[in-house]
């Protein structure tokens, strides 16, 4: 209840009292009216004082309430602002992480799309026999050129029969050059892998077995030539899956390849085989170098013998020179001795004829000029 409402109520009470007093004044005597008028005046004054006090209290309570409400609103606004700031920071962080994940997802999607294109292109390559052969030759070329030296292999090398071998490893005899075939029958393998029931799977297995056997026979007949190539050849399968399928479920075909001396290799086993070939070539080169070293050692031995002969001749010259030096030293000593004796030579007084006379020769003296 506000101050205006309270004032209206008080005025209504005062008006009611005045109205009642007027009615009573008409009915009562004049002395009583004067007394009542004084009481009413006192009551009106008291009501005015009470109204002022109530108004002041209400104003004070209103101020306190307003301050409390304002403080509560300020605190609530601060909490709301802090909460909104915290939520905004969390949302920004979440949005940042979401953007990063979306970027990763976009990159993954691009990689998947590119991989799908590569898979489709690979399927197109493998579905075409000529393209499949070229793909196998490229993979074979990469493996061989990465492991062996260029002088130890050749691609599309013609044989004496006119057949061109996909790759010919130039090995010394034995075993001799080894041919590698890079074409493989994949159509029957694809049919085997996509077979839906047992009947289709059995039919595809027979076709796959027959195709591989015919390919083994063709390699043995084309690439194994007595006196020209080695007694064995390699059938390169650019697919580890086909290699695993053969060795897991077609052991008879593998055994037949052994009997025809056609070794079936995958990229992994071919790499191991090429490393073995590299070791063999290195051993051959070492043996060749050993012969060269032996030949050079023999030549060096002959040079050492000639050096010994020349040193012996030089020693003889040194011995002769030493003998001559000793003779020279003896002659030099005698010359020194003669010089000393000449220095000790004494002259006597002149004779009567005025000619000087020499002292008698010293004992042990020899002829002049004797060495």
UniProtKB/TrEMBL annotation:
Keywords: Coiled coil, DNA recombination
One Pfam short name: RmuC
Stretch list, region Disordered: 332-371
InterPro entries named in the record: DNA_recombination_RmuC (IPR003798)
Keyword Ion transport on entry: no
Transmembrane segments: none
One GO term (biological process): DNA recombination
Coiled-coil boundaries: 290-324
Ranges annotated as biased composition (Low complexity): 332-343
Signal peptide, first to last residue: none
Domain of life from the UniProt record: Bacteria
Family that this chain belongs to: Belongs to the RmuC family.
Function description: Involved in DNA recombination.
Name of the protein in its database record: DNA recombination protein RmuC homolog
Source species of the chain: Limibacillus halophilus
């Amino acid at each position: 209840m506000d101050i205006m409402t309270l004032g209206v109520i008080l005025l209504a009470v005062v008006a009611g009292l005045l109205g009642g007093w007027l009615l009573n004044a008409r009915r009562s005597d004049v002395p009583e009216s004067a007394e009542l008028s004084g009481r009413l005046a006192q009551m009106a004054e008291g009501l005015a004082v009470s109204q002022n006090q109530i108004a002041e209290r209400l104003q004070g309570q209103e101020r306190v309430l307003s301050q409390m409400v304002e403080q509560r609103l300020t605190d609530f606004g601060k909490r709301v602002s802090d909460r909104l700031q915290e939520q905004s920071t969390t949302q920004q962080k979440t949005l940042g992480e979401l953007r990063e994940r979306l970027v990763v997802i976009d990159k993954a999607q691009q990689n998947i799309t590119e991989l799908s294109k590569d898979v489709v292109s690979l399927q197109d390559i493998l579905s075409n026999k000529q393209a499949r052969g070229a793909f196998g030759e490229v993979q074979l070329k990469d493996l061989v050129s990465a492991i062996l030296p260029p002088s130890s292999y050749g691609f599309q090398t013609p044989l004496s029969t006119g057949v061109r071998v996909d790759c010919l490893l130039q090995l010394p005899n034995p075993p001799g050059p080894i041919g590698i075939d890079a074409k493989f029958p994949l159509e029957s393998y694809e049919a085997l892998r996509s077979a839906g029931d047992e009947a289709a799977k059995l039919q595809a297995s027979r076709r796959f077995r027959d195709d591989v056997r015919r390919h083994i026979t063709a390699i043995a007949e084309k690439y194994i030539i007595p006196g020209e190539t080695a007694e064995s050849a390699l059938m390169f399968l650019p697919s580890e899956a086909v290699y695993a399928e053969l060795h897991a479920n077609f052991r008879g075909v593998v055994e037949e390849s052994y009997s025809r001396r056609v070794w079936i290799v995958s990229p992994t086993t071919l790499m191991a085989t090429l490393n073995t070939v590299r070791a063999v070539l290195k051993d051959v080169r070492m043996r060749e170098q050993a012969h060269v070293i032996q030949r050079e050692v023999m030549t060096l031995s002959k040079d050492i013998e000639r050096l010994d002969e020349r040193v012996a001749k030089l020693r003889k010259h040194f011995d002769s020179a030493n003998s001559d030096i000793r003779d020279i030293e003896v002659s030099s000593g005698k010359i020194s001795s003669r010089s000393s004796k000449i220095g000790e030579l004494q002259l006597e007084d002149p004779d009567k004829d005025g000619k000087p006379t020499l002292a008698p020769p010293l004992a042990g003296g020899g002829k002049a000029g004797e060495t």
